[in-house]
Amino acid sequence: MNLANRITLVRIFLVPIVTIFLLVKLNLGSLTIGEYSISYNQVCALLLFIIAASTDGLDGYIARKRKIVTNLGKLLDPLADKLLMAAVLIALVEMEKLGAWVAIIIISREWAVTGLRQVALLEGAVMAASKWGKWKTAIQITMIIVLLLNNFPFNFIDLRIDLVVVWAAVLITVYSGVDYFVKNKNLIPVSD
Fold first, then answer.
1. 111 in helix, strand or coil?
2. C-alpha distances in angstroms, 116 versus 55, 95, 122, 128, 179?
3. Residue 47: in which H helix or E strand, if any?
4. Where does the sequence pass through the membrane (predicted)?
5. Of 113, 123, 162, 166, which is most buried with the most CB atoms under 10 A?
6. Are 139 and 168 in contact (CB under 8 A)?
7. How far apart are CA 18 and CA 41, in angstroms?
8. What gap in Å lies between CA 85 and CA 81, rounded to an integer?
9. Rounded Cα–Cα distance for residues 57 and 48 (Å)
10. H or E stretch at 30
11. What is the pLDDT of residue 191?
12. Distance between alpha carbon 167 and the CA centroid of its chain, in Å?
C-alpha cells in the first residue's frame, strides 16, 4: 500500500476517535478564559479534526506528484471525506451546536453528488472536482472549526460568526450541488 493510501486510511481511522472525543463524556476538564470555556474533549476533537481534514489535500497531492494514483485511493479518498464530515456534523447536531436540517442538507448533497459520480463512471466519464466543490469543502471545514471553538474569539465582541459560516456553508453546499447536476445533466437518464 502506497503512502497516499496510508494517509487516507489514517483519516478514516481518526473518524471514530474524533467522534468519541465529541460525544463521550471523558471529563478531561475545561479550558477557561474569562467567560469563555471549552472542554478539553472538544479541544482534542478539534485538533484531530484539523489534522484529518488537512490530510485530504495531502494524500491527493502525494499520489499525483509521485504518480501513484490507484483505484483503491480513488475509492477511499472520497469515502474518507464523507465519513469525517458526516460523523462530525452528526456529533454537532447531538451536541446542539448545529441544526439537524443543516447536517441533512450537507450530507444529502454529498451522497447525491457521489451518486452522480457513480453514474458518470458507469458511462465511462470522470467528473472532476469543480471550484465550487473546493469552496464548499473549505467553508464546511471552517464552519466545523468555528462551531467546535464555540465561536471563539468572536464571542468576546458578541459577533455571531458561527451563524454566518453556517449559512455560507449551506448556500455554497446547495449551489455547488446544483452546479454539478446542471453541468452533468447529460449523464442523468430521462427515460429507459
1. helix
2. 25, 32, 10, 12, 12
3. helix 40-65
4. 12-33, 39-62, 83-107, 137-157, 164-182
5. 113
6. yes
7. 9
8. 6
9. 16
10. strand 30-33
11. 63
12. 15
**Of 2, 138, 147, which Cα lies nearest the Cα of 60?**
2
Q: Sort residue 29 into left (φ over 0), alpha (ψ -120 to 50) or beta.
A: left
Q: Which pLDDT band holds residue 135 (cuts at 50, 70, 90)?
A: very high
Cell triple for 181: 447536476
HSE-up of residue 180 (Cα within 13 Å, Cβ side): 27
Residue 52 CA, distance from chain mean position: 10
Q: Distance between CA atoms of 94 and 174, rounded to whole angstroms? A: 23
User: Which residue bears the cell 444529502?
Assistant: 108
Residue 153 preceded by cis peptide, ω within 30:
yes
152: closest CA among 9, 26, 30, 29? 30
Mean pLDDT of the chain, nearest integer: 89
Per DSSP, 87 falls in state H
pLDDT at 133: 87
Look up residue 32 and give its DSSP letter.
E
Dist. CA 184–CA 59, nearest whole Å: 27
Encoded amino acid at 151, one letter: N
36-79 tens-digit pLDDT = 888 999 999 999 999 999 988 888 888 888 888 877 777 788 88
Crossing angle between the packed helical segments 71-94 and 3-23, to the nearest 10 degrees: 10
